[in-house]
Amino acid sequence: MKMTKYTLFTKTPIVFDSDCYIMAIESSCDETACAIVKNGRDVIANVVASQIKTHAKFGGVIPEIAAREHLEAINAVIDEAFKQSGLAPEKISAFAGTVGPGLVGCLLVGLNAAKTLALVYDKPFIGVNHLNAHLCGNYIDTDLEPPYIALLVSGGHTQIIDVKSFSEQTIIGETIDDAVGEAYDKVARLIGLPYPGGPVLDKLAKDGNPYAFKLPEAKVDGYNFSFSGLKTAVLRLVKSFDGKDLPVNDICASFQECVSSTLFKKVKKALEASGYRQVVIAGGVAANSEIRRKIFELEKDGYRVNAPLMKYCTDNAAMVASCAYFNTNTFDDVDVEVFSRA
Ligand code: KG4
Ligand code: ZN
């Protein structure tokens, strides 16, 4: 991997090959994170300060509170990353930050911190797209290289992506309404589970019968998805119990079965059409046990399947650093503005 970036003031060339250390900052939603990654794959430091406890009280992320908490956490998180790495700031080859999509007030905190570090230490600045970063979580601790098909499932996105090269990717399918993570969180709320509902629902589903209730699978063209009808079906099911003896585990398991089999079928179809031999999953919902299990079944058909470790699935900065290293589709202008939607 040979690529040259330039420092901000003195325009000194920095070659990204061996011993390239990138410090990245991520603050697009409710995690303040900072990491240092060597050559895009080796994590030297990884710090994540989660705000989940704060937002759980409200049943979802409150943007203004999130932005304020990022401000309070950011310096400590950066200091901790330097401490974990044992590296002096001068040793960092470039500073990267998430530009979007995400909550604007939140993104501003992390991105400005990354830009400031790059200016102060006269290093290159690299702005990263959060969704590309999620895909790059798959390069950590592996030797994975494109081409592959990726299933990106998070709180805000559900996409099937044809990743042709490190910097060339085409979205070939996406949700036409709710994202998978959003559907998990909404269904969890319907049955009275705390925010974020995804991980709790996943756990409860393990003790339920996935075939207890037949939930509708949306028929959507091509590789696209729709999850809002399923959410409504769960609402109707919950109401039919009239508050009495709700079979929570069975509802969770049936919902999880419906979602995971829909995702699996479309990924398999995309993979077969692409002719690629590799498939990856990424994003917060890639932490889901049943989605992982089904996608990993593809190994039996001879495909290479990759999923990041759980800690690199949900929002983190190591994936941002990896993206800054591998993906040339970055926003390297220090004047780049944050953006909320993809
Ligand atoms: O990627 P992420 O950390 O943040 C976004 O960029 O959206 O994803 C967060 C989403 C939340 O909706 C959360 O409920 C979901 O990921 N999630 C899960 C699991 N772990 C996290 N959903 C289902 N099963 C899980 N085990
Ligand atoms: Zn994310």
Describe this structure in words.
- By secondary structure, the protein is of the alpha/beta class.
- It folds into two domains: 4-140 and 314-325, Nucleotidyltransferase, domain 5 (2-Layer Sandwich); 148-308, ATPase, nucleotide binding domain (Nucleotidyltransferase, domain 5, 2-Layer Sandwich), CATH 3.30.420.40.
- The chain has eleven helices and twelve strands.
- It has a five-stranded mixed sheet, with helices on both faces.
- α4 (130-136) crosses α11, α5 (180-190) packs across α6 and α5 (180-190) packs parallel to α7 (228-240).
- 49% of the residues are buried.
- The model has no long low-confidence stretch (mean pLDDT 95).
- Zinc ion binds next to α4.
Descriptive tags:
Nucleotidyltransferase, domain 5; 39% helix; globular; single chain; 12 strands; 2 domains; 20% strand; 342 residues; binds 5'-O-[(R)-(carboxyoxy)(hydroxy)phosphoryl]adenosine; alpha/beta; 5-stranded mixed sheet; binds zinc ion
CATH class of the largest domain: Alpha Beta
> What compounds sit in this structure?
5'-O-[(R)-(carboxyoxy)(hydroxy)phosphoryl]adenosine, zinc ion
Share in β-strands: 15-25%
Radius of gyration: 20 Å
The tally of domains stands at 2
Task: Please tell me the CATH architecture of the largest domain by its name.
Answer: 2-Layer Sandwich
SS summary, helix count? 11
Mean pLDDT: 95
How are the strands of the biggest sheet laid out side by side? Answer: 5-4-3-6-7
CATH evolutionary superfamily of the largest domain:
ATPase, nucleotide binding domain
**DSSP, total strands:** 12
Element order: H for helix, E for strand: EEEEEHHEHEHEEEHHHHEHEHH
User: First CA to last CA: what distance?
Assistant: 27 Å
Poorly predicted spans: none
In CATH, the topology of the largest domain is named: Nucleotidyltransferase, domain 5
